[in-house]
Design a protein that fits this description.
The complex is a heterodimer. By secondary structure, chain A is mainly alpha-helical. Helix content of chain A is about 70%, strand content about 0%. The two termini of chain A are about 35 Å apart. Chain B is mainly α. Chain B folds into 3 domains: about 50 residues; about 40 residues, no CATH class; about 210 residues, MetI-like (MetI-like fold). Helix content of chain B is about 80%, strand content about 0%. Classes of the chains: A mainly alpha, B mainly alpha. At the A-B interface, helix 1, helix 4, helix 6, helix 7 and helix 8 of A face helix 1, helix 2, helix 3, helix 4 and helix 6 of B.
Chain lengths: ~325, ~325
């Protein structure tokens, strides 16, 4: 689901309850304080217009049927030997046991995790640089902003096919013409190098949105802070580390969480560039779930894999948010 | 400094507290130092306004080549023939007929129509439904049930699609929704979590007095929503429309698992089928890639400011 990418919110916590209709606004301010427990139990007893239920409940039912129900079904399937059709028997935790011994699955997790770290680091470094550059006094500011956002508007799969050809044929030919040894071979067909085009494409496409997020963060910083700094004789480097960087902390957090989440779900890039090859060296977890689960006859086995993958992602998100909460507090 | 940071997070409060901060500091400052400071600031500002950082501009120009080179390569390759393909040079003879071949091979007319139909319906339905769900949840957050719904919807943002795609593919098939209608429904429903997340913050910034006045005049909740709240949500509706458009138009995985009939295929899906079947004729393949990218690129060129500000509004919700 790529839309989650698009709508980063800076506030991860729930927006404060803010119902002014009967003066319960105080609820909101207290929501994040230690006194929270006592407050939350005091839900208001006012009458709610039934129209509000008509607005929200049908959506909730659809949401349950299309999202949570398949999710729970998946958990159910993971304890069977279902092929996706026909009869299935309950086999307990056997799928899970097999998963932990499956080298192909283990490699997919390792590969996904490694490229995710590479993608997250590269995307955020480049995006942060671009955002700061785009926010400073440069010519053609809006033009550059528009240019760097172009990759975000393109389908990953389609531009991925372009990159495939570039890495397969055009770049090796260029390397041969210029007699550069390591460039002369196609990276896509090399087991040890095939990760690079995938990371490259993910970064090429992912930088656009992160840059915009950082730019949004930079624009929340009041100009007068910079004026004060420059009057005090702060140089560009100091200004960045002492002012800009701490002030866009929340945007850094959300960017890291979002890029990591997207990178862990890398799929289109693999389909376009390597199809998991050579020798299944570039299979990501999502690709493996799709490929073997839907066409490879491992339906139940791969739903078990999906359940484990979900738990892994939750743990990663929790660690990331935990770290950022701790660094926020120590500041 | 921590104060500034906090206001940066809750955007609804930013403008107010910034202004009040400035008033406060201005009043407390010694008039003389304030005057000197103001002079400095003015001098500093005027100096800055005139000096463009050309070094940085050139660096950005070079970096923007990273965006342009793949696009340039796509264009020149699409016009070449099979013998001259593979280099960055301009084609000697421009082969426009590649596009005719690609159009026929990918059945571009009907796939583009599918993509358009799915995207337009998904965006329209999303705007017409997700907004009132957000309204109902936002205005009743003090009630236990609606607070639960909020987490129910938002929680799904953390469930990656890969986790539920296998059972979902099966389920959509058994509902006979493995078609365009099913795909539209999925975009409308799956977008709900993120759209709610953006819209609720915005709705919270709309004052209650308008609704109360309308209610006193006898308007019901639905009428209040359509006549007062929905029009006021214009900016955030634009954001939702833009993100949903880009998502539905460019998405590959969802059509891949949901659509079973080839006649329903969207543009990315058609490119996938095409590339796995006839990948050897690169100029024709690139012509089809270019055709797949062009609709979005053309719309983007004419609306880039609007698109970027819309997406940014989604990033700092509720501005």
């Amino acid at each position: 689901m790529s839309q989650t990418t698009q709508s980063a919110g800076v506030r991860l916590a729930a927006p404060a309850a803010s119902n002014g209709m009967n003066g319960s606004g105080a609820n909101g301010a207290a929501a994040t304080r230690p006194a929270r427990k006592a407050k939350v139990s005091k839900f208001s007893h006012r009458h709610v217009d039934p129209a509000f239920y008509w607005m929200a409940v049908p959506a909730a039912i659809l949401f349950g049927i299309l999202l949570y129900w398949p999710f729970l079904q998946g958990v159910g399937y993971s304890f069977t030997n279902s092929q996706g059709y026909g009869k299935a028997d309950f086999i307990g935790f056997r799928n899970y046991g097999a998963l932990f011994q499956d080298e192909r699955v283990g490699h997919a997790y390792l590969f996904t995790f490694l490229i995710s770290i590479a993608i997250t680091v590269c995307v955020n470094l480049i995006a942060l640089f671009l955002a700061v550059a785009l926010n400073s006094h440069i010519a053609f500011k809006n033009g550059f902003r528009a240019i760097f956002f172009i990759p975000y508007t393109l389908a990953v799969l389609v531009i991925g096919y372009v990159f495939r050809y570039l890495f397969m044929t055009a770049i090796p030919e260029m390397g041969q013409a210029m007699h550069i040894g390591w460039l002369s071979q196609s990276m896509i067909t090399s087991e040890s190098m095939a990760w690079f085009p995938i990371v490259f494409l993910a970064v090429w496409q992912g930088v656009a949105y992160s840059t915009l997020l950082y730019l949004a963060g930079l624009q929340t910083i009041d100009e007068s802070v910079y004026e004060a700094a420059s009057i005090d004789g702060s140089n560009a480097w100091q200004t960045f580390w002492k002012i800009t960087f701490p002030l866009i902390g929340p945007f850094l957090t959300i960017n890291l969480v979002l890029t990591m989440k997207n990178a862990m779900n890398t799929f289109d890039q693999v389909v376009a560039l390597t199809q998991g090859g050579p020798n299944s060296s570039t299979e990501t977890v999502t690709y493996l779930i799709f490929n073997n689960g839907l066409t490879g006859g491992e339906f139940a086995y791969q739903t078990a894999n999906a359940v484990i993958f979900f738990l892994v992602l939750v743990v990663i998100a929790a660690i990331q948010l935990g770290i950022s909460a701790r660094t926020d507090r120590s500041k | 400094m921590s104060n500034v940071k906090n206001t940066a997070i809750s955007t609804t409060a930013t403008s107010v507290s910034d202004a009040s901060l400035r008033v406060l500091t201005g009043n407390q400052e010694d008039p003389r130092t304030a005057r000197i400071r103001r002079q400095n600031v003015v001098a500093h500002k005027s100096k800055d306004r005139h000096s463009t950082n050309w070094v940085l501009t050139i660096v950005l120009a070079i970096l923007s080549l990273a965006v342009f080179i793949p696009l340039y390569f796509t264009v020149v390759t699409a016009f070449k023939d099979q013998q001259t393909v593979g280099t960055f040079a301009l084609p000697k003879v421009w082969h426009g007929e590649n596009f005719v071949t690609a159009w026929q091979m990918t059945d571009f007319g009907s796939t583009a129509l599918n993509s358009l139909l799915i995207t337009v319906c998904a965006v329209a339905l999303t705007l017409l439904t997700n907004t009132f769900v957000a309204y109902a949840v936002a205005r009743n957050m003090d009630k236990r049930f609606f607070r639960f719904l909020y987490y129910f919807f938002i929680g799904a943002m953390f469930v990656p699609f890969s986790v539920l795609m296998l059972p979902l593919a099966k389920q959509m098939g058994s509902f006979h929704l493995d078609n365009r209608l099913g795909l539209i429904i999925l975009y409308v429903v799956f977008g709900l979590g993120t759209n709610l997340f953006i819209a609720i913050a915005f709705i919270n910034s709309i004052p209650f007095s308008l609704e109360e006045a309308a209610r006193v005049d006898g308007a019901g909740t639905w009428r209040i929503f359509w006549q007062i709240i929905f029009p006021l949500m214009g900016p955030i509706n634009a954001t939702i429309a833009i993100t949903t458009t880009l998502w539905a138009w460019n998405d590959f995985l969802m059509p891949l698992i949901v659509l079973t009939d080839q006649a329903n295929k969207t543009i990315p899906l058609a490119q996938y089928v095409f590339s796995t079947q006839f990948s050897s004729n690169y100029p024709v393949a690139f012509a089809s890639y270019l055709m797949a990218m062009l609709p979005v690129l053309i719309v983007y060129i004419f609306s880039q400011r609007w698109v970027i500000s819309g997406v940014m509004r989604g990033a700092v919700k509720g501005e």
